[in-house]
Amino acid sequence: MDTVIGRVGGKVILTLDFTFCNFMAGVLLNDKTAAETAKKIQSLKNRFAAAGLCFGDILPLILTDNGGEFADVFTIENGLGGQKETELFFCDPMQSSQKPRVEKNHTMFRDIVPKGASFDSFTQETVNLIFSHVNSVRRKSLNGKTPFEVFAFTFGEAAAKILGIKHIPADQVVQSPKLLNK
Predict the structure, then answer these.
(1) Nearest CA to 147 among 18, 21, 58, 19?
(2) By three-state DSSP, how is residue 177 classified?
């Protein structure tokens, strides 16, 4: 789990990366605070529960940095009834190498949204569109499969849908700023 910054003081994107398949989902945050992160994680847990799925079954372990936006450990680790359902671990300071796949997917995100661009006009649907395209790029490391295909095979398309990600056919994938200019 990590965050991508747009304009300083503006909206940010919370990213959830499933390292086994390079699948990444993004959650739009109005600000980079622990309260906003906790609120969005809680909402995600509610959506999983409404679909009969458990957040902890999909994300049993979360590795993140020491950013203040991740300070509400209780809300991140515990389920809707207060029971522990996931484990939260923090990287060592200044060691982005401890989560290299997150950084690689952020690079793919930046192919579409260049660094320094504001996210203030984004909606959650904008974020979902971007990550749907990122997750629909075939990867050599997945034997030519896409992150979406491997994630959906493992957890089901319902889990991908809850995360807002859909499959984009290979001939329609756009991995440039043109995606948002349509």
Answers:
(1) 21
(2) helix
